[in-house]
Amino acid sequence: MTHAPSARPPMKLLIAAPRGFCAGVDRAIIIVEKAIEKYGAPVYVRHEIVHNKYVVDGLKAKGAIFVESLDQVPDGVPVVFSAHGVPKAVPAKAEQRGLDYLDATCPLVSKVHRQAERQVEAGRHILFIGHKGHPEVIGTFGQVPDGAMTLIETVEDAEAFAPTDADNLAFLTQTTLSVDDTAAIVSTLERRFPTIAAPKGEDICYATSNRQTAVKAIAARCQALYVIGAPNSSNSLRLVEVAEREGTPARLIQRASEIDFAWLDGVMTLGLTAGASAPEILVREVVDRLAERFTVEEEQVETTRETIAFKLPRGLEAA
Hints:
- The longest helix has 17 residues, at about 25-40.
- This protein has helices spanning about 25-40, 55-60, 90-95, 105-120, 135-140, 155-160, 180-190, 205-220, 235-245, 280-295, and strands at about 10-15, 45, 65, 80, 100-105, 125-130, 150, 170-175, 225-230, 250-255, 270-275, 295-300.
- The chain is of the alpha/beta class.
- Helix 3 links the parallel strand 4 and strand 5.
- It folds into 3 domains: about 10-20 and about 205-300, 3-Layer(aba) Sandwich (Cobalt-precorrin-4 Transmethylase, domain 1), CATH 3.40.1010.20; about 25-105, Rossmann fold; about 105-190, 3-Layer(aba) Sandwich (Cobalt-precorrin-4 Transmethylase, domain 1).
- A 5-stranded parallel sheet has the order 10-9-11-1-12, sandwiched between helices. A 4-stranded parallel sheet has the order 3-2-4-5, with helices on both faces. It has a 3-stranded parallel sheet with strand order 7-6-8, with helices on both faces.
């Protein structure tokens, strides 16, 4: 007997919590929106404010113009720096040109910047664990003089590094790394350089580690897992890796339109999460699209509750 086409197979959907927006992303988006309210459109933003096309397109519609360099910002208009942080030379150049600027750098990234300055002042060479070319890495390197920092991407890099002064080293990390990968690199550095100075507290931000823990909590229970996020979003890519390391096939999608139903063939239990720059509306969009083909039963799996919020820069609270 053939099934009527309306008979949708059942699917259990395990939705990770926490997921989606973190406090730093939330704050950055509000800064752009309030800047547009305060100054009127257009407001220029140097680099994507957060790595998410849906968010960026939404802000473009309100009057934000995204550029990669300060040279593309005309005189006399306000400019916002992205949540990933910028090298010191960028605000210095904005000041030279008399531009009004708002810094939407995540406070947890700014904390790493300040630690970098302090370690250099203390005469230490910094080993920075991160991904080459990521805007956060470029911004952090731009806080200190050239040559004061060396990028370490892998355990191999940590093994190969040859310092001029092994007793005056410190390490810092990008905030959006894999907790497990970073631990392996740190233990290599600490074994090779027992006197290396560690950051005060953890550099990997609470939101990155919470989202990775949440994925671990559901990975073993599902046959496949979707991460909603952008291909240039470091924390989203790490969530795919975390699931795969637990033995669960995982894929990154930006929108519901990218769901591959052939890939879901035979999947009865699907995991779902979203990177720190993906809004909840995209999670609901994915669930609705799945519900067109499956009889979806949702279960939210919460590993912790996030209550962190960051203050807005002075001059915008009132906007």
